[in-house]
From TrEMBL:
One of its GO terms (biological process) is gamma-aminobutyric acid catabolic process. Residues 60-397 form the Aldehyde dehydrogenase domain. This is Succinate-semialdehyde dehydrogenase, mitochondrial. SUPFAM superfamilies: ALDH-like. GO terms for molecular function: succinate-semialdehyde dehydrogenase (NAD+) activity. Keywords: Oxidoreductase. It comes from the Eukaryota. Belongs to the aldehyde dehydrogenase family. Gene3D superfamilies: Aldehyde Dehydrogenase, Chain A, domain 1, Aldehyde Dehydrogenase, Chain A, domain 2. Its EC number is 1.2.1.24. It comes from Nyssa sinensis. The active site is at 296.
């Protein structure tokens, strides 16, 4: 009854060569855009938004051995910044700072914590252009989408500011007449927050906002591909009055940082968004010190179009579901199943719509699809395309 196959003729599947040319711009247009990215980076640097050191105990800190890693613009391959490449020792110091800060932050009244979070929200919104530019620079998504992520990311801080005042307990009817049972909610302690590159701001605020609202303190480990937005957000947290040590950021050697977070008895919770493979490692590693874990792992998202669907609505919905962030979100449709009666119409309309998506540097006018995050991602998409073709998929259009 259902469609013969998922439609797999997505424009990005045909783009490795286009993406490769964006990485090494040869056209006048791409050179101009690359210059635009450079001047954005220079402006962000002079306004203090381009931080390159880790953030430990409220201080900007180099890696102890001086090592750095490159953060590259995925649209051009150019280096945006060299950031501190940290490991176990820096992480242990960040944990110690967070542990110290926990003793006071957990005792601050809920109303005060709420005010600090609200101020952080206000500052993020006030700087949404700069933060959006940083996201486009290091992650590649189109600027409009990046600024949209800032609003989305900030909303988690706003929500947490509101909820900070409503962390109520419970009184439970007792089975015995001379007992009273009640539940008092208390912060667990230091939280290790490990985040991916696809939402450089929102994945951080979604973890850090609730943790701070409860009175916990955090050590953030952003993806080494996109640490710049995390560092700028940390700077704003300090300006908002969130005390030094309550928010720390370390980045660099992911397994070393992860192992230090897992080994520490002072870290009481790990919150992670990323691959299932790494999630499993973290879950197993957290058992040694019986930490709480919250894991948001890979998604599996079919998009189903029925015969009676409104074609326009189905088209718009499928485009958004498939191509948001160039298909790099955990809820992006990874197969599209179309009922037979509407198959031809939908396939043609979808193919045309995809053809019209403008692919390019996220700073380019009218660009709807930025680059994939790196070469490995391009190769992964290529292999999906080859796999589909080898299993009988019919390609409706190329390039
Ligand atoms: P993706 O495939 O989406 O990049 P990953 O799970 O590899 O997902 O990465 C998500 C986050 O997990 C990133 O911040 C990455 O640096 C981090 N990470 C990867 N390996 C480890 C590890 N062994 N311990 C802790 N964090 C890790």
């Amino acid at each position: 009854m259902f469609a013969r196959m998922a439609i797999r003729t997505f424009k990005l599947f045909q783009k490795p060569s286009h993406l490769a040319s964006m990485r090494h711009p040869t056209t006048v247009l791409s050179r101009q855009i690359s210059m635009e990215a450079e001047s954005v980076a220079a402006r962000l640097n002079s306004s203090g938004f381009l931080r390159t050191q880790g953030f430990i105990g409220g201080k900007w800190t180099d890696a102890y051995d001086g090592k750095t890693i490159k953060v590259c613009n995925p649209a051009s391959g150019e280096v945006i910044a060299n950031v501190s490449c940290m490991g176990g020792r820096e992480t242990n110091d960040a944990i110690a700072s967070a542990y110290d800060a926990f003793s006071s932050w957990s005792k601050v009244t809920a109303a005060e914590r709420s005010k600090c979070l609200r101020k952080w929200y206000d500052l993020i919104i006030a700087h949404k252009e700069e933060l959006g530019q940083l996201i486009t620079l290091e992650q590649g998504k189109p600027l409009k989408e990046a600024v949209g992520e800032v609003a989305y990311g900030a909303s988690f801080i706003e929500f947490s500011a509101e909820e900070a005042k409503r962390i109520y307990g419970d009184i439970i009817p007792s089975a015995l007449p001379d007992r009273r049972l009640f539940v008092l909610k208390q912060p667990v302690g230091v939280v290790g927050a490990i985040t991916p590159w696809n939402f450089p701001l929102a994945m951080i605020t979604r973890k850090v906002g609730p943790a701070l609202a409860c009175g916990c303190t955090v050590v953030i480990k952003p993806s080494e591909l996109t640490p710049l937005t995390a560092l700028a957000a940390a700077e704003l947290s300090l300006q908002a009055g969130i005390p030094p040590g309550a928010v720390n950021v370390v980045m660099g050697n992911a397994p070393e940082i992860g192992d230090a977070l897992l080994a520490s008895p002072q870290v009481r919770k790990i919150t992670f968004t990323g691959s299932t493979a790494v999630g499993k490692k973290l879950m197993a590693g957290a058992a040694g010190t019986v930490k709480k874990v919250s894991l948001e792992l890979g998604g599996n998202a079919p998009c189903i179009i029925f015969d009676d669907a409104d074609l326009d609505v189905a088209l718009k919905g499928t485009l958004a579901a498939k191509f948001r962030n160039s298909g790099q979100t955990c809820v992006c449709a990874n197969r599209i199943i179309v009922q037979e009666g509407i198959y031809e119409k939908f396939a043609n309309a979808f193919s045309n719509a995809v053809q019209n998506l403008q692919v390019g540097d996220g700073f380019g006018e009218g660009v709807a699809q930025g680059p994939l995050i790196n070469e490995a991602a391009v190769q992964k998409v290529e292999s999906f395309l080859q796999d589909a073709i080898s299993k009988g998929a019919k390609v409706l259009q190329w390039g």
